[in-house]
Amino acid sequence: MAVYEQSYKRYTGAETPRSLRFLVIPRYAYERLSGSKIWWVLLAASGLTTLVFAVLVYLRQNAKALAVFGITASDFAKALPIGGGFFAVFLGIQFSIGFLVVLLAGPTLISMDLANGALPLYLARPINRLEYVVGKFMVLGAALSLLTWVFGLGLFSLQATLESGWLFEHLDLGAAIFVGSWVWIVVMSTLTLALSALIRWPLAVRGVLLSIFLLLPAFGKAIHEGMGERWGLLLNPGEVFATMVRQLFGLPLTQGPPIAGVWALLAGVFVLSVIILARRLRAYEVVS
Amino acid sequence: MNEPAPSSTGGASPPVVELEGLEVRFGALRALANVSARLTGRAIGLLGPNGAGKTTLLHTLLGFYRPAAGTARVLGLDVRRQNKEVRSLLGYMPERDALIAGMSGVRFVRLMAELSGLPPEQALERAHEALFYVGLGEARYRPMESYSLGMKQLAKLAQALVHGPRLLLLDEPTAGLDPPARERMLRLIREIRDSGEVGLILSSHLLRDVDECCDEVLVLKEGEVAAHTDLAEERRTNRRFLEVEIRGGDGTFPDAVRDLGCELAMAAPTRLKAVLPEGIGVADMYRLASEHGVQLRRVSFRRDSLEDIFLEAMNGGAPEAEPTAPDRVDRADRSREGDHGGL
Questions:
Q1: B107 falls within a domain
Q2: What is the pairing mode between strands B216-221 and B43-47?
Q3: Would you list which residues of chain A are within 8 Å, Cβ to Cβ, of chain B?
Q4: Most distant CA pair in chain A: distance in Å?
Q5: Domain check: are B44 and B180 in the same one?
Q6: ipTM entry
């Protein structure tokens, strides 16, 4: 179909593998995300946080550098043990930055396709609904992975490199970084995609997400303090994720919501989100 | 992707669409009921009033809806069991607005090409070509949100054909277009049809769109087949009917027309109605007029056959004319079985 000929010709060239075509969806979304200045600011903030934690790890192993500040290595090690607490704080900060990435990139992923009638265009091609959702999930999944477990395992590797013998005693911390990050990524991403499919208006999706993370905790606190019920803290997503992370890192669980409730809630949110996606993502709605 | 395009002449090739007792339900509502047809044309029209089931049929072929009963095959492939294979052969232009926000026309069409399996470089090249082909070459870098309705329709057509499908499904392609844009769209569809590279199914409630573009038509009413006609054959039949208005000459022209073998009726001394036999065409009429010094002021074919078929189907009776193609047996069978329901 040469331009100068202005006539229709069938395409007869090579084709990409059918099973990998859904990867086109996240690739186009990344290209779009990379055009956002806010994304680069958030990525820089996340990278800077990682750098600060890396400096702390380095200083803990470098008595000469600490001496410049008049601090002894033992005092520093006592004040800053590199263990579960250290990495839990790191992940907590990264989750907060990641939440802003979710607010930036998540709400438009499906809602804009539904609002503009684009879903039939995807599904009229050799792409099924699951591949479409996985493609959209990968947009958030990859961005949030970079901020959480990739940077986290980078820190973990640095510490393992600087302190011989530390790695084999603390392999469980590496696993906790990876698993905790993925639990957070999966729940946040599916919840955001489900809200995006349900509400179809990105601004409203952002509003709902902010309400869940900023207003619900206030109700939870009222229940917790007024009725003395720890279950009320389940309405605080920040507490829920923090409790999940604390358990994975083997830290004491005295203040937060009941751990069984935390895992049940996380599983429930995931399942509910998947159900919403399954019901809402159809090429055309059918009114029975 | 290299198989020949659908053709009514291909003996061994499967029919473009084959429906056997197809039923699609939305809850208690039967959107398609016992639809059986074997569509073999190069350009197939789906005709019917709003709510007749045209779009539902297209969506079922695309695998959007699951048949409650019966089967549907596209180019020999079962739409239920070989859904991805079917969709890889199709290009679909939806009726409603469909675009991806925040993209230029060329980026949108390129994305659609890549989703259909074209490598990125080829997808970009084909996207440019497809947009030039439909007439959006100059606007291809503009955001799609800034496109007019006509431009959006053309962009939808470009994305439907960018990957070189074997069969194009066009759902109300002229909906909402002003007359010039509509003419442009129909011209494009005819060009695509005449290229012989791709078959097409055109769903419309506009008789003229189907009449101008299609050689076979399936008329639906309330989810059932109301008529199924080989339009090309109908046209061949109707081509024999000519109305001619003449001036001048020595009065021997009508006799000369009769001598050609035409049946002739004269509404007035200057107005003839002729039924042309096989092998006699308009050119012969012009030649004869020239030989007898007659001016032909007006020559017209009767082109109202589709309207006749449609109106009769809508009014509940099958067209009176005998089926002219084997596929019309479907309608005859249904008549014998008394399966017309409310028709």
A1: yes
A2: parallel
A3: 1-3, 6-16, 18, 21, 24-25, 28, 32, 108, 112-113, 115-118, 120-128, 282-284, 286-288
A4: 79
A5: yes
A6: 0.85
